Amino acid sequence: MATVLQANPRDDLRGSATRKIRKEGYVPAILYGNKIESQPVAVMSVDLLKTVREVGKNGLFSLDVSGKKKHQVMIHDIQIDPLKNEYTHIDFFEVDMTSEIDANVPVRLTGEAPGEKEGGMVSHLLYEIAVRCLPADIPEEITVDVSNLTIGDSIQVADIRSQVSVDITSEDEETIVTVQPQAAEQENGQAPDEQAEEAEEAEEGKSEEE
Fold first, then answer.
1. pLDDT tens by residue, 43-88
2. Closest CA relative to residue 22, chosen from 93, 80, 91, 75
3. Short-list 17, 84, 93, CA closest to 28
């Protein structure tokens, strides 16, 4: 594989050691698989970010541990610090290229829905679709065309199943996207907040009269 991420073994698993490697620009991680023993490792944060951007969430790449052995892996889980927006821990899963695996593939909407021009609102409900296939066949994304959707229309998993080259394990009834009518924001030429203000003023005036 073209993409290679370097990793170092991580022997000291104490919290203080983990905090230290993070300060040094590394991300603690675990390498595991069905045919190998779990092994704590650490990777450079900058290199990890570059790899994720290059191969995507479900992409395959080589994890080179100390230059001794390369493992064909994919990222199974990423933990992120919500405040610093930094990776705090990664799970690397060594894949068997001859066995099917389950994966979640991101959904991307394409086209412009006529219903939106009619005043409707496109509501994207399902952001990932579950699939089962060989590791090398995992799609980077699944595109869903909304060009034929008018107000009240929707697209479910069943509608795109035949368009995807791998086996979809998500339920047919799950709705991916729908075009909903927007709630009336104005009534009698007034916005809801303006109506509320007038009602409040009228109530105050009534109280003063009493």
1. 999 999 999 888 887 889 999 998 888 999 999 888 998 888 888 9
2. 80
3. 17
- The structure's pTM equals 0.70
What confidence tens digit (pLDDT) does each residue in 115-156 have?
A: 999 999 999 999 999 999 999 899 989 999 999 999 999 999
| Domain boundaries defined on the chain | 4-96, 102-181
Q: Mark 120-154 as b/e (b = at least 16 C-beta within 10 Å).
A: bebeeebeebebebebeebbeebebebeebebebe
Please enumerate in sequence order all residues whose Cβ is within 8 A of that of 190, keeping only pairs 6 or more positions apart, or say none: 198
Domain 4-96 superfamily per CATH: Ribosomal Protein L25; Chain P (2.40.240.10)
How far is Cα 176 from Cα 109, in angstroms, rounded to an integer?
Answer: 9
Q: Are strands 101-110 and 142-145 parallel, antiparallel or unpaired?
A: parallel
